[in-house]
Amino acid sequence: CQVTVHDVNELTEKLFPIVEAMQKHFSAGSGTYYSDSIFFLSVAMHRIMPKEITQIIQVDLDLKYKTNIRDLFDEFDNFPEGAVIGIAREMQPVYRHTFWQYRRENPQTKVGEPPPDGLPGFNSGVLLLNLEAMRQSKLYNQLLEPTMVQKLTEKYHFKGHLGDQDFFTMVGMEHPELFHVLDCTWNRQLCTWWRDHGYSDVFDQYFQCEGEVKIYHGNCNTPIPED
Hints:
It is built from ten helices and seven strands. By secondary structure, it is α/β, with parallel strands linked by helices. It has one domain.
């Protein structure tokens, strides 16, 4: 078993020029903090990792595994043609909220609507990054360009604070074909913040998840159930 340790400062140095433009749209702080770049690591992982690394699973720390993480690697085999990233849907109406202006101007849109037919956005707690596909996708790399980021944020009136998750969500509204949607059981989010902040009427449409949970995600410091 080979373990490689990557220096955060070195990674940030490589990342910053690639993601600097998107930080002002998807960071919590005002302006662009150099250190914030690390929250966009997944977006540009294919530009930073050695070419021989073709697939990476990136996960948050607040997870509890109920199955062997190896099984998640099998999901790479299910990527449709053109998909570069595997990611589960966001399980709260956070993006219903974020896209409020676009939704008001486009009342028939699926943007921000709950599953199965809507586009609720993504949660980046569990990510499958097909680095080889990311490197080869002309479309994906075009979307990293500052002018494209600017164009999409203007179209969707988007201002977020969740880093890579916001970028993937916005891109997914425009180009869903770039993503393989993981089943909710691979990233069973537990946070219920939005239930108590104006969305109790629709909350459960986003939050429900059928099936045996493989990974619990205790986001927003939510306790994870004991076995």
